Each structure stands twice: as structure tokens, then as C-alpha cells.
């Protein structure tokens, strides 16, 4: 005999197995329903978070290219020269390069939400600064410095690539991680492709001023657009973005789904050792819910208490311990890279080759990107020159997107080897640079050269240069140990995007373009002969280069011997 909450005596027949089975069945159904609701909520949060991160990456690239149609006019407005223009373009890349290191480092110690908030605030500051750089108080140096510094600050705020990819790696399972990261790269490329067109469309807004101080016209509108856009992103991060907790990590969600039977078994065992009254069941529900719904990025569960709480907390602790052990194993593997480079000279040589390739490929693009609007404005003397230039350079970006889709299809069908894509892309870049080697550009040479360099050659070469090196490493030292080396390759490309515009401004002479284009042609010859003569031909024997990552193990041993 036991008493209920109304102190009424109730007879309980402990030997009735049917009643116990019904209770257990109801409990399992109740727990499964809670799990299903929880998983749906987690998927919704994950979708919102990824959408916001993709928007950050997309508009980070828009911030780079939106000024292409008008930056030449802004530089002239503040009394700048071609050197100033080169510094302005270079400053954005320098800010992004530095931010990739700094923000990537602090992402290990701070929450993603705080880092993204800080980056958006810096983007707003840089955009507003850019919009007011024309106010130089009669001193051209102030205006020119403001223009350069504003782009550096904006570039630093937009340098969230490493943080964004770290976030994607945290909330996605390995089987879907490659897809999400590839999609993020495609969105970045799309952002840079459409950004000149956005800059051209802004020129249709009639110019006006506020109190004769705040001027809003085609030159300053890119800054105002970025200010408004980054402010909207900041609000989205503040109100909708949630830091991934331990429960929100995709690997943990997967483990929770797979181990649902174990969790139910633990609950049954815990409940068998406790009182079967409604109060205990309510406690278990409340404590478990508080641990599963914890937010704010700390990943804390609830306090120890009821039976359901102990099983859930223990599960989460086991998952966290598993993740920590994987991270420690990853760090140990990364630390052994230097020993691998010392022992395997071929890997070291490949690293140097691909650093040279990625650096000079992006340096050449930086040269032509910096002076593109300048060349276009000299050839197009119409009143809509700045607007037309945005459409022209935007079309180069869309041509690149089409080529990316073609390359992806060819590689999946194994119809074309990565090596030949790289060599052909470098050859097209060399042809484009050679076509522009004149004292003064004509329309024909300008259009042909930029299609070859910007629209075709750069797209082909930069698409495969990093992935090709990554696949080579996968067949030698494995996937888990290549993060540092890929980081070095990527950093070399970022430095090329910084150095190229600087040389472009220093070598530019409007009366004689031959020295500038001769320098670019020399760089193109370096990448062409490096890809043809220095990359080991054994790479052509590696079938895995055009296979997906799921088939690594089948080829690793054979391909290691080929490379070695």
C-alpha cells in the first residue's frame, strides 16, 4: 500500500508484469518524442547559424570588390596617385591576412558569437571611415591615409575565414563537412564576382548631401552600403546566432542518436533503483531539459541531481572527453609535420613549389585588379564609365563561376587531371600577360588580356593549386596532418594579394605601361615553368587526385610509394 498526493491508499500489484511493460513502453515513447523535438530544434539552430556565417563570408568578399568601379575616382578625389591606389587595394588584403591569424587564434579561447560581433563592429567602423575619407581638412595626406586605414580596418573585420571554417568544422559531421566548406568557398567566389556589379548599380542612386558635409554619391555609396549591410548582419548575430554548445556539435548529435538505446537503458536502470513516483519523473524531465537546452556557448549541462540527470550528464561528459582526446591527437599529429618535412624531402620540395605558385598567381591578379578601373576609364570616355566598368569586371567573375562548374564536373567524371588544369590555367595567364605587354593598351588587348587573366586563367589555377597540394598530402602523410601545411599555402596566396597591388602602384606610369606589364609577364613565366618543370610527373600516376575523400584508404599505400 502506498499513498498518493491526496493521502489516499492505493493498492499496487508489483507482480503485474503487463503494467510494468506498459509503463516502460510509455516511458521510451516519451523519451523518444523529447529526443525528436530536441533534434529538430538543434537542426533549426544549426541552419540559422550556418546561414549567418555564409552571409558573413559572402559580404566579406563583397567588401573587397564593391569599390572596383569607383576606387580610382576616390583616390584622385583625395589627391592620390597610382601608388596610393595600390596601397588602398593592398590594405584590405593585409587586414584580412592579419585578421585570419589573430581571429583564428582567439577563436580557441573566445566564443564564435563574440568574435563575429567584434568583426562586424570593425566592418562598420571601416565602412563609415571610408565614407568620410574625403574630408581631409585641406591636407591631402589626411584623406589618403584615411582611405588606406579605412580599408585596412574593413579588411581586418572581414577576415573571418579561419573562424568561419572552424565553426563549420565544429557543427558538421565529417561526411558533410567537405560539402559545407566547399559551399562556403563557392559563396565567397560568388560574392567577389557580383560585387563590382553592386558597385555599378549603386551609381544609379541620385547624389545628395546632408548639411553640406555628408556627401552621398557614387564614390561614397559603397561605404554607406557596407555600413548598412554590416549593421544588419550585426543585429542578426546578436539576436539569432547561437554559440555551438556541446549538444549542438554535429558529432555529439550523431552519437546521441546512435546511443539512444543506451540512454534509455541507463534511465531504466536508474529508475529501477529509485522511487517510481511522479515527483521523480518530473525532476528527471526538468533536469534533463535544462542540460539539453543550455545555451550561451558554454556547453554546460545541469547540476547533478536525479537519475535522468546523471545519465545525461555522464553521456555529455563522455562525449566531451572523446572530443578532447581527438583534439589532443590532432595536435600531436600536427607537431610531427616538421619531422615529416625533415625526413621526406619530396614533401618539402612540393611545399616550396606550391607556395611559389599560389603566391605569384594571386600577385598577378592583384596587379591587374588594382589598375583595372584605371585602364577602363582611360579607354571608355563616356559619362557612364564607372558604371560600365563594374559590369565588365562582374562579367569576368561570372565567367569564372561557369568555369568552376565545368571543372567540378570534369574532375568528378575523371575526364581531366588536376595537373593539366593547373598547367592550362597558368598558360592562359601567361598569354594574357603577354597580350598586354605594350606601351599603351588598346580596347582589344585590354579585353583579351583581362578575359585570359581574370576570367579564365586565375579561375583555373587558383581552383586546383591548393586542393592539388592537399590531395598530394593525403596520399603521403594523411588528411589529419596537413592542416598546418595547407595554412602555409593559403597564407602565401594572401601575401601575394598584398604584394601585387603595391608593385602595381609603384611601377605604374600612365605614359608607358610596358615596365608594369613586363613585370607581370615575368611572374607568369615563373608560375608556368614551375608547374611544367618542377611539379613531379609522378603526380599523374596518382589516381586518387580526382577521387573523393571517401576513397582515401584504398590508394594511400600505393600512392605514398609513388611520391616517395
TrEMBL record:
Coiled coil (residue ranges): none
Keywords, in A-Z order: Membrane, Transmembrane, Transmembrane helix
The protein's name: Major facilitator superfamily (MFS) profile domain-containing protein
Low complexity bias locations: 260-279
Domain called Major facilitator superfamily (MFS) profile: residue spans: 49-539
This protein's GO CC annotations: membrane
Composition bias, Gly residues: 296-309
Domain of life: Eukaryota
Membrane-spanning ranges: 47-67, 73-103, 115-135, 147-168, 180-204, 224-241, 347-368, 388-407, 419-441, 447-473, 485-508, 514-535
Annotated GO MF terms: transmembrane transporter activity
Record carries keyword Ribosomal protein: no
UniProt keyword annotation of RNA-binding present: no
InterPro entries, per database record: MFS, MFS_dom, MFS_Domain-Containing_Protein, MFS_trans_sf
Membrane topology, record value: Multi-pass membrane protein
Lineage: Eukaryota, Amoebozoa, Evosea, Eumycetozoa, Dictyostelia
Region (Disordered): 260-314
Subcellular location: Membrane
Amino acid at each position: 500500500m502506498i499513498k498518493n498526493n491526496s493521502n489516499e491508499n492505493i493498492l499496487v500489484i508489483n507482480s503485474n508484469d503487463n503494467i510494468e511493460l506498459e509503463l516502460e513502453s510509455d516511458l521510451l515513447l516519451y523519451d523518444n518524442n523529447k529526443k525528436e523535438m530536441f533534434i529538430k530544434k538543434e537542426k533549426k539552430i544549426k541552419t540559422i547559424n550556418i546561414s549567418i556565417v555564409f552571409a558573413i563570408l559572402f559580404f566579406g568578399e563583397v567588401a573587397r570588390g564593391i569599390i572596383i568601379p569607383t576606387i580610382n575616382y576616390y583616390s584622385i578625389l583625395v589627391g592620390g596617385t597610382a601608388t596610393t591606389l595600390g596601397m588602398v587595394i593592398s590594405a584590405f588584403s593585409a587586414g584580412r591576412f592579419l585578421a585570419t591569424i589573430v581571429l583564428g587564434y582567439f577563436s580557441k579561447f573566445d566564443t564564435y558569437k563574440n568574435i563575429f560581433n567584434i568583426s562586424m563592429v570593425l566592418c562598420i567602423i571601416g565602412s563609415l571611415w571610408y565614407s568620410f575619407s574625403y574630408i581631409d581638412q585641406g591636407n591631402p595626406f589626411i584623406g589618403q591615409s584615411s582611405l588606406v586605414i579605412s580599408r585596412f580596418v574593413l579588411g581586418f573585420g572581414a577576415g573571418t575565414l579561419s573562424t568561419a571554417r572552424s565553426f563549420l568544422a565544429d557543427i558538421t559531421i565529417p561526411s558533410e563537412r567537405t560539402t559545407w566548406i566547399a559551399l562556403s568557398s563557392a559563396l565567397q567566389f560568388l560574392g567577389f564576382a557580383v560585387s563590382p556589379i553592386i558597385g555599378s548599380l549603386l551609381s544609379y542612386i541620385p547624389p545628395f548631401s546632408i548639411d553640406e558635409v555628408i556627401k552621398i554619391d557614387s564614390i561614397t555609396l559603397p561605404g554607406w552600403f557596407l555600413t548598412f549591410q554590416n549593421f544588419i548582419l550585426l543585429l542578426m548575430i546578436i539576436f539569432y546566432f547561437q554559440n555551438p554548445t556541446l549538444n549542438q556539435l554535429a558529432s555529439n548529435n550523431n552519437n546521441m542518436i546512435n546511443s539512444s538505446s543506451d540512454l534509455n537503458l541507463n534511465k531504466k536502470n536508474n529508475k529501477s533503483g529509485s522511487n517510481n513516483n511522479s515527483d521523480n519523473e518530473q525532476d528527471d524531465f526538468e533536469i534533463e531539459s535544462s542540460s539539453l537546452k543550455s545555451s550561451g556557448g558554454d556547453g554546460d549541462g545541469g547540476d547533478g541531481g536525479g537519475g535522468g540527470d546523471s545519465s545525461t550528464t555522464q553521456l555529455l561528459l563522455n562525449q566531451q572527453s572523446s572530443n578532447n582526446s581527438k583534439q589532443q591527437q590532432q595536435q600531436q599529429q600536427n607537431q610531427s609535420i616538421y619531422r615529416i618535412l625533415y625526413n621526406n624531402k619530396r614533401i618539402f620540395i612540393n611545399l616550396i613549389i606550391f607556395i611559389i605558385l599560389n603566391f605569384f598567381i594571386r600577385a598577378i591578379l592583384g596587379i591587374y585588379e588594382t589598375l583595372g578601373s584605371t585602364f577602363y576609364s582611360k579607354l571608355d570616355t563616356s559619362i557612364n564609365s564607372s558604371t560600365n566598368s563594374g559590369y565588365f569586371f562582374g562579367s569576368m567573375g561570372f565567367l569564372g563561376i561557369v568555369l568552376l562548374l565545368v571543372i567540378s564536373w570534369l574532375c568528378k567524371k575523371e575526364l581531366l587531371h588536376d595537373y593539366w588544369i593547373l598547367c592550362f590555367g597558368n598558360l592562359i595567364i601567361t598569354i594574357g600577360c603577354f597580350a598586354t605587354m605594350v606601351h599603351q593598351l588598346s580596347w582589344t588587348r585590354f579585353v583579351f588580356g583581362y578575359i585570359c587573366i581574370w576570367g579564365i586563367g586565375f579561375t583555373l589555377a587558383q581552383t586546383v593549386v591548393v586542393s592539388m597540394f592537399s590531395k598530394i598530402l593525403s596520399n603521403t602523410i594523411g588528411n589529419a596532418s596537413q592542416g598546418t601545411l595547407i595554412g602555409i599555402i593559403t597564407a602565401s596566396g594572401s601575401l601575394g594579394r598584398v604584394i601585387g597591388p603595391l608593385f602595381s602602384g609603384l611601377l605604374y606610369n600612365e605614359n608607358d605601361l610596358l615596365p608594369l606589364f613586363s613585370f607581370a609577364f615575368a611572374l607568369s613565366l615563373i608560375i608556368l615553368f614551375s608547374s611544367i618543370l618542377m611539379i613531379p610527373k609522378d603526380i599523374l600516376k596518382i589516381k586518387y587526385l580526382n577521387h573523393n575523400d571517401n576513397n582515401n584508404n584504398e590508394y594511400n599505400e600505393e600512392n605514398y610509394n609513388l611520391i616517395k
